[in-house]
Structure formats: structure tokens, C-alpha cells
Amino acid sequence: MKLRKILPCIVFLFVFFFSFCEKVTAKEVNVYMFYGKTCPHCEEAYEYLNGIKDEYDLNIIRYEVWNDSENKEIMNDIASYLDVNPTGVPFTIIDNTPIFGYSKGVTDDTFLYHIRLASKENFVDNVGIKLGIVKGVLSEDKNNNDGSSANLYSLSLPFSFNVDLKNVNLYFSTIILGLLNGFNTCTLWMLLFLVCLLANIKDKKKMLWLCLIFVFSLSIAYLFTILSSVNYLSIVNYFPLVRIIFSVTAITFAAIKLNSFVGEPSRSDKKVENKLISSIKNNDKFLFTLSVLGIVILGILSVVINVYHDSSILTLFNNLLSLNTISGIRRAMYLIVYVIFFMLANVIILSILFFIYKKISNKLNKYINLISGPLLFIIGILLLLKPEWLMFGF
Predict the structure, then answer these.
(1) DSSP 62
(2) Tell me: the pLDDT tens digits for 246-296?
(3) Is 229 in contact with 352 (CB distance < 8 Å)?
(4) Superfamily for domain range 29-148
(5) pTM score > 0.90 for this model?
(6) Rounded to an integer, what distance in angstroms lies between the CA atom of residue 56 and that of residue 62?
(7) What are the b/e assignments for 338-361, b being 16+ CB within 10 Å?
(8) Residue ranges per domain, the chain?
């Protein structure tokens, strides 16, 4: 009987959630692909891009270079312009960024990352201008994806509002950008994922502490990432693996929670579900340490997701630091302030979610698995199939 009650709820949640999902991009994105006629990897790359062409409003422009000397000359000219050496095909350019080769399931996320950046309203397609496909004037910095010095310091807000931070106090800009990077849909669903994951813990204070440990781990790992000046693209390449880890975790716990609600869980399910709870309840230091370690690992892995979806704000902040010739210890201090306000935004979102959770759990405690289970399931499925939908179109 209970299963019949659950299924309509799950269907309703899916319909309700998907009804708010919109197209991700804001404008047409040009994709330049240099390929070989009989190259299997080139064909795979084209099939993937062609498959998402309508969804992301792509304009795929292809140049066959193995049999066409003129196209090969164009490829070499563009490669020279971008200061790279194309050793093979496919050689794809999105967001003025060269992408070499293709590996199914890996390069896909790299494509999506740069499609998202190229869809920004202030993006200038320098490669398209160089090829004569797009009208405009080349920027002096050929590697500048924004295409103009003004856009380097411009913050794009909803409803087509742009704020030029070039002449704004740097301390104020640091605070604003840190908060904006923290107040985003990526943070919202990650913290929602965590609250749903820990929803069965009866001791709400300990549950809150575990959530705060997650936020602290995420913030510290994020600080070390930006202090080390690591290449963002190298971080992005780990996104498929991290996405799978979060997805499997979410779906596994969703299944356990729904099974617990439908009927008496099996011994194995009950053991898995209550492992974290019992470690806290019984004050078992060893198991509690493992629980904290798991939360810390999730926090560190979340940095990859955050960089994948919100690197444009961090790039803008780095541009402002360069404009003001901030380096060395002073740069580190600004980055610390940036991350402190990033963490503050996370704590505010967590506090709101936790307040809602307390209100729901106090009144509907026996239905907490019915609520948190489907939410975890939706997050897990979307991470596997449509991770960009978790950003609600932003």
C-alpha cells in the first residue's frame, strides 16, 4: 500500500522539478572543428556535438584537413594564433580555447564547460573574427575569452544587468564576488544533497556540525586550489569522476531511505543506513572519525563541481587582482577574504535549509525518508544524465 503512495509522489517531484529546467545557453555558440575524413574519434566528437546542437544552440563549423590543403592551412593559422601545436585531429575550438582529441564520457564535459562560457552575453569570439565568420575587432590579448578589456572586469547579473568593477574598491569587490560565488545554485543543491543524506540523524546539533564540517572542508580545499593557481581546466577534467561518485552516493541512500519507508528494512540495508547514525549515537570514536572523514572527502570533491560551474566569477576576481597589481602575500590575503565570504554564504544557505528541515522533521518525522529519498534520487539521476539542469539554467 505504501509503495502506491510513494510512486505518485516521485512522479510529481520529477514533473515539478523538470518544469523549471530551461535551456542553459544565452546565445548561439560557434564550435570550430578540424577533422580527418576517416578519423573515428572525429566522427564520435561530431556525433556528440551534433546530438546536443539544438539543446545548446550550437553552430558547428567543420574543416576537413587530411584531404584539403586549404583547410589545413587555416588550421595551422588558427593554431599559430592560439600559440598551440595541433598534433592530430579532432582539433576543436570552443570559447577561444583549443581542445585536442576526443574521449567519450571525458571530453564531453570539457565541451560543455566551454560551451557554457562561450554562451555568456559578453563573450567575444576571437577565433570567429579571425576566420571572418564573426564580425568584430580582435582584442589585443588573443587568449582573452571576453574579447575586450572592459569585459575583463564586468560582472554579468540576471536580467541583462552588467556591473563594471574596474573602478570599484577592491575590498568591496572581493566581498561581493565571494558572496556571489557562495550564493549559487551549485551550492544550494550540494547542501540540499548533504541535508537529505544526513536527514535520519536524530541529534540535530550533531547533524548540523557534520554539515558545517562539509562547508569548512569545501572552503579550505577551495582556498588551497585558488592559492596554488592551478589550471581550472585540469580541475574540470575530474568532473565526470566526481559526478559519478556523488550520483552513486545519492541513488544508494535514496534507495535505502525509500526501502525503509515502504517496509521494515533488511538487516544489510539497516546496517548501511544506520552506520553513520549509530556511530554518532553511541559515541564510537573510530566510526565517528570515519563519518567525519567521509564528509571531509565529499567537501573536497565538491571543489571540482564548484570550479566547473562558477569559474567565471573567480576569473573575474583574478582579473581585478591583476589590474591592481596585487601579488604575493597581498594576493593571498585577498583570496582568504574572498573564501571567508564564500564560506559565509554557504553557512547562510545551510542555515536556511537546516531551519526548513527542522520544521519539516518536527511535524513529519515519520515521513522524512519519503521526502529526502526522492530528492536524493532526483539529484543522483540528474548528475548522471543532465548535470547542467541542477544549475536551473544559470
Answers:
(1) E
(2) 888 888 888 877 777 665 545 554 555 555 555 545 555 666 677 788 889
(3) no
(4) Glutaredoxin (3.40.30.10)
(5) no
(6) 17
(7) bbebbbbbbbebbeebbeebeeeb
(8) 29-148, 172-391
